[in-house]
Description:
The chain is mainly alpha-helical. The chain contains 18 helices and two strands. It has a two-stranded parallel sheet with strand order 1-2. Helix 5 (69-84) packs antiparallel against helix 6 (88-107), helix 6 runs antiparallel to helix 8 (149-162) and helix 17 (316-329) runs antiparallel to helix 18 (333-368). The longest helix has 36 residues, at 333-368. It starts with a helix and ends with a helix.
Amino acid sequence: MNDKEIIKELKSVMTGDLEKDTEFLDSIIEKFEGSKEDKDTLYAIGLLISEAVPFAEKEKLVQSFEKEVPRISEELDRIANIIGNGDYDIALSLAEKLIEEGEGYINDGTFKENSKMVFFSFEESMQEVLYRSLHRKERREIYAVPFPYATIYFMYGSVLWNLEEFEEAQTAFEKARKWNPVSASITLQYAETLSINGNISGKKCLKLFNEVFKYTFEPKELAYVYRTLGKFFSENELWKEAYICYNTSLKYDDNSGDAYNELEFIQDESGITENDISFGDEMKFTNNYGISLKPNQKIIKLAVDCGEEAYAEEDFEMAKYFLDIAYNLSPKAEIKNLLDEIEKELNSWLKLNKYRTNLWVVTCRLVYI
C-alpha cells in the first residue's frame, strides 16, 4: 500500500474526536516505529497528525519543544568550533545526528507542512517580516519553527563543501534554502555550488545573486553580496564590473581585507583604478545588470514601519531592533531621533526595574529583622 491508500484506510476508522484520533495514531506509531518496512505507514500517520492537530495544539507542541533550543544551540556552537579546527569528519557526524533529530519532528507531524500551514526556520525576526512581505499571496499560515533546520543544513553543506563533496553539498544547501529562503548566505553558497557542479548558467547564476538584494539587510552581509558578485565578474574577466562591486562592498564593510586584495588584483590585471570609474559607469552597470549600488529602500521602509509600530505598542526592544536595521542602512536624523527616544525609554525601564529590585530587597530585610 502507498501512503495515499494508507491515509484513506486510517481515515475510515477515525472518529473526528481529536483526543481519540491522536491516541489511535500514536498507538500505531508505537507499533511500527523502527520498522524499515513500514516507512509509508509512518509517513501517512505524520500527514494525518499534521492535518488533524489544530493550530493552537501545534503551538503547544512548539512551546514544549522550545525547552530543547539551548541544548541544540550549544551543539551548533560545538560543531562550528570543530569546523574551525578542520575536523570535518567529526563535524559531519554531529551534524547528521541533528538532521536526524530534526527530520523526526517532520515525520511525526510536528513541523510537517500541509494545505493549511507552511513552516520555516528563520534566523531572526526581520527575515520573517521580509518573507511575509515578499509572499503576500501565500494563503497558508506561515509559521516560524524553533528548530534551526536552515542553520543545520547550511552547516552540514559547508562541511561537505570543505570535503569537496559538492553534489551532496548542493542538496544540503537546497534544503537549507527551503527552510530559509531569505538568507543571503545560504542563497549565495547555493548559487556558487550550482556553478561548481555545472548545474546553472552564468546568466541564471547572476539572476540568483541579484535576487539576494531583496532580503539582505545587514551591512556586512550586503558587503559580502557585492564581494560575491565581484568574484563572479572577475572570474569572467569583466574587470570594470568587478571593480565596481568590490569598491561598493567597502561602503558597507571597510575592514574587509578580501575586498582590498581583489581591488589590487584587478588593478594589476587590467590597470583599472578608482579614478577610471565614473558615475556614468555605475549607472550603466545598474542598467545592464539590474543591480543597485544603493541600499534597498523597500527594506528600509519596512524596518521603519515595523519599528514605529513596535514603538507605538511600547515594545521598545523590538522597536530598537527594527530601527537599528533601518539606521545602519540609511543613517537619517529622524531615525536617529526615534532611536534616542527608545534608548531613554529603555533606560527608564531599567532604572524602574532596579528600583523595584532594591525595594524588594529592603522589604525582605525589614520582614526578617
